[in-house]
Amino acid sequence: MATSTFFLSPWAARLLSVLRMVAGLLMVFHGTQKLFGWPPSDHAGDASGLMLVAGILEFGGGLLLLIGLFTRPVAFVLSGLMAVAYFMAHAPQHVLPIVNQGELAVLYCFVFLYLAAAGPGPWSLDAARSHTSPVV
Sorted alphabetically, which keywords does the UniProt record give (predicted)? Predict the structure, then answer.
């Protein structure tokens, strides 16, 4: 019996890079909101203590993920950051993420954990540094 291939299968490596870039860019915005007050929100720009640490990790880690540099360790650290954010800020409100508004933290946690395991994909500085030929 012939095996069929899903039409997006040839794009899997490239889409891994796109996932990394989008997650990194969105994390940068979380960091800029905490550190610089942009984009504006209720708690924008008033980072101190743990929020300052979170803002620095989100901004710097997001930039590194966006360009695909040190992807695995950065993604692992950000996965931990999102787990801490969930258990400190959301879980005390309710056990279910949909109720405690923590579903984004949970999703980020597991996307970053996946990136730590899967790597940056071909469109990254990590791939360029390791002299692997990028998929075009």
Answer: Cell membrane, Membrane, Transmembrane, Transmembrane helix
**Residue 68 corresponds to which tokens in the numbers above?**
């695909």
Which amino acid, 124?
S
> The pTM is what?
0.91
Q: What are phi and psi of 86, to 5 degrees?
A: -65, -50
Instruction: Please report, in tens digits, the pLDDT of each residue of the chain (136 residues total).
Output: 556 789 999 999 999 999 999 999 999 999 999 999 999 887 666 778 999 999 999 999 999 999 999 999 999 999 999 999 999 999 999 999 999 999 999 999 999 999 999 999 999 999 999 976 555 5
Q: Distance (Å, rounded) from C-alpha 1 to C-alpha 131?
A: 38
Q: Is-cis flag, bond preceding 120, omega within 30?
A: no
Provide the token pair at 80.
């931990």
Which amino acid is residue 74, in one-letter code?
V
